[in-house]
Write a structure and sequence with these properties.
With about 300 residues, the chain is an alpha/beta fold. The protein is built from ten helices and ten strands. Helix 4 links the parallel strand 5 and strand 6. The protein is globular, with a radius of gyration of 18 Å.
Length: about 300
């Protein structure tokens, strides 16, 4: 749906839709991308769920995650082998498993029959990550690394583009255009929190921008996923924000899940455990049903 020339958007204008990101722009009110990744539908009534730990800590842990999130109905396992940690310092506990972690994740995904999404951080690792992952995740800090976006797009793999915490909708769609212009049409947008003067808790760095879901859907045909785990950085808030995201029209949900959240090696304040995730899946299904969609795939 085009933005009115008489009442242009504060962020996205009609000129932007026609000349800056015409490939990402909606052509009419019913224009919505539809595509399938590893048999999972995007753009329809299904709301895919991505679940797993922030970091692939060990072979045993990621296998346990794959088994449990699949049993609860998750459509994709997520996990980070390559992690863009805010500071350069590492320890035995706070580190990356890199190529080894990627191999563990791929083995777990295959063993338990669940497709995987993982972040790629550097251009030199694109071929390796693309070999294993069903979806390449572009992290918030790389959202405007345009040569990197182009290189990822050229793999032909589906791409999840996380919104940078300081970027506007206009910036976000401009970055998506760098992927689309390479002929890669399987692009998923992901909201994961924006910076604000206050965040309601001392530990929280971001606010979840639920308003961007309908705002984006007014002007783009691309699916819009929400990551309430990173956006809230606080476990008790993940459930209400996940449910609110579905009620607000989100096209997918990414949830951080860990078998022992308090002892997670990265960001222990935000993941839910297996039992909490299983319960949340049921609640998300009920909210999805209320808006004529579904989280759990039909039997």
């Amino acid at each position: 749906m085009a933005v009115s020339n008489k009442f242009p958007g504060k962020d996205v204008t009609q000129e932007d839709l026609e000349t800056k990101f015409p490939l990402a722009a909606k052509k009419d009110p019913n224009h919505k991308s539809w595509f399938s990744v590893a048999g999972v539908e995007f753009g329809g009534d299904l709301i895919p769920v991505f679940a797993g730990p922030n970091m692939v800590e060990s072979k045993e842990l990621i296998a346990d995650v794959a088994k449990n999130v699949k049993a609860s109905g998750a459509h994709f396992m997520r996990g980070g082998a390559f992690k863009p940690l805010t500071f350069p310092y590492r320890s035995d506990a706070y580190t990356e498993t890199r190529e080894e972690g990627l191999a563990w994740m791929a083995e777990a995904a295959q063993a338990h029959g669940i497709p995987m999404i993982t972040e790629v951080m550097e251009e030199k690792y694109i071929p390796l990550v693309a070999e294993h992952a069903d979806i390449l995740q572009i992290g918030t800090r790389n959202m405007q690394n345009f040569p990197f976006l182009t290189a990822c797009a050229k793999t032909g793999k589906p791409i999840m583009l996380k919104r940078h915490f300081g970027c506007s909708l206009r910036d976000w769609l401009g970055s998506a255009e760098y992927i689309l212009v390479e002929g890669n049409e399987k692009v998923i947008l992901c909201e994961r929190g924006v910076t604000a003067p206050h965040t309601h808790r001392g530990s929280s760095r971001f606010l979840i921008d639920l308003q961007v879901v309908p705002a984006a859907q007014e002007v783009t045909h691309l699916p819009v996923v929400v990551d309430p785990s990173h956006a809230t950085f606080w476990r008790p808030w993940v459930e209400p924000m996940a449910l609110a995201s579905i009620a607000g029209g989100a096209d997918g949900i990414m949830i951080e899940v860990h078998p022992d959240p308090d002892n997670a090696k990265v960001d222990p304040l935000q993941p839910v455990d297996f039992a909490e995730f299983d319960e949340l899946m049921g609640k998300m299904e009920r909210v999805a049903h209320a808006v004529d969609r579904h989280v759990k795939a039909p039997a």
